[in-house]
Fold:
Amino acid sequence: MPRSAPNALNKLLEGNRRFVDGTRVHDEFREDHRNLTSPQDPVAAVLTCADARVPPLELFDLTIGDLFEVRNAGHLARGPSVGSLEFAVIHLGVRLVLVLAHDDCGAVKAAQAVKAGEAEPQTPAIGCIMESIVPLLEGPGDTDPSLAAETLALAQLERIREVSDPIRRAEETGDVWLLAALVEHHGGHVRLLTLPPRDPSPRTP
Ligand SMILES: [Zn+2]
Structure:
């Protein structure tokens, strides 16, 4: 299958469908998984939360070498994270960059508590995470963690476009798709939050 953004998205969504249906094909450790010497050839780059309940390889029914994962609490597009995504696009030829939010995000809920004056960041480093999330919590996102997670993901898309010339240019030419999605914890369904640019009526994910 040729490398392209549409093919990459199809591979991820088909894998997530298998995950949801309980028909994963990568659900067993195989001997070839021990071989890590082959060059990586990821189908996509995923910026997602560090939350242990959001393992991208499993959610998309992929295996070692298939996915370039960039993770931090709150899936924030900040310096090293954006640089990592640029590495995936420029050096690994990744054509799909997916910002993957999730339900029940602890970073989002902590930021909501900070914004409400109910809590303080426990350390300066945690404070840096809160400073990136709190300003985005407006309206329903003040109290609804899922809506806030969606808002946060969409804001990260814009942030990537703002700070990364190579990714923005690749998106403008259509070589790279930059999309956002959300994992529903109940069932593990990945729901697209933005539509692919060249397909105005994609199938329901
Ligand atoms: Zn989270």
About this structure: The two ends are 20 Å apart (CA to CA). The pocket of zinc ion is lined by residues 49, 51, 102, 105-107 (CB under 6 Å). Strands lie at 44-48, 67-71, 96-102, 177-183, 190-192. The longest helix spans residues 145-163.
